[in-house]
Amino acid sequence: MATSHDLLDEQQSGPRAQQPVAQKPAVGGPATAVTSDNSYLDRALSTLEQAETNLADAAGLDQPAADSPRRVGVAVSILMPVYNERETIREIVAQVQAVGVHQEIVIVDDCSTDGTRDLLIELDRQEDIRVVMHGYNRGKGAALRTAMAHASGDVLMIQDADLEYDPSDYKSLLEPIERGEADVVYGSRFLENAHQDPSFMHRLGNGLLTWASNVTTGLKLTDMETCYKVFRRDALRGMMLREDRFGFEPEITAKLARRKCRIVEAPIGYNSRGYDEGKKIGVRDGLRALWCIVRYAKWD
């Protein structure tokens, strides 16, 4: 098909091209002549490009929304087991959202009886929050299994529902995975400042369990019992997890080690709370953890 430029060339190359071809005048106006001046095409294209730019800006196609701090990168699911955390649940969720690295927050309520569930029903209305409720109290490990089953992210990160762990550490925890240097990252409370936990007995217990875990797994961790564990989803694919309570920590550590996953640690902050403030792990859980260290070092 001939273009407007082709037609103009034909008009100017034939025998009649010696003189401009007069055009029929518009009603009430003078006659106009065909010309080879194509500047009107440049002006039209420039106007079209500006219109497309304005449309993209209006639709927000070239830049993220100003009120959204979230990064574009791996899709992160925050897994949050909850049991009787009415006093802290709103605050910890707000802190997670303020950091803004997540795709979703999957909260599993382990049959709270203190009014936490009422707050979770309200939080579930938010677009980035998914709440799942257990019909009876099953334990932290069981709640995490439920959260994993409902999570859709490429990376899974565990967050307790109290205020002991600070979500501002998320970015440093994610960096080794984003750089392709690790499959799993543990946030260590003791890597830089072992005295963040003021309780000598807690430090002693954690040290004993971490040492025993290292002996059986060949790892060199400083804080096996940490809440902050971050996993590439592929590292957990097909893994059968059995422990319902705090035995989850040594179990998953042993099974990741047996899979030869690349596990690194990153220092984190820690604001320990006492039993009068809702701390739940006890001596019985420590003894169970020792049993799990031995059991899962060789058996599923």
TrEMBL record:
Residues 77-237 form the Glycosyltransferase 2-like domain. Keywords: Glycosyltransferase, Transferase. Its EC number is 2.4.2.53. One of its GO terms (molecular function) is undecaprenyl-phosphate 4-deoxy-4-formamido-L-arabinose transferase activity. It comes from the Bacteria. Gene3D superfamilies: Spore Coat Polysaccharide Biosynthesis Protein SpsA, Chain A. CDD domains: DPM_DPG-synthase_like. Residues 1-35 are annotated as: Disordered. It holds the Pfam family Glycos_transf_2. This is Undecaprenyl-phosphate 4-deoxy-4-formamido-L-arabinose transferase. The lineage of its organism: Bacteria, Pseudomonadati, Planctomycetota, Planctomycetia, Pirellulales. The gene is arnC_2.
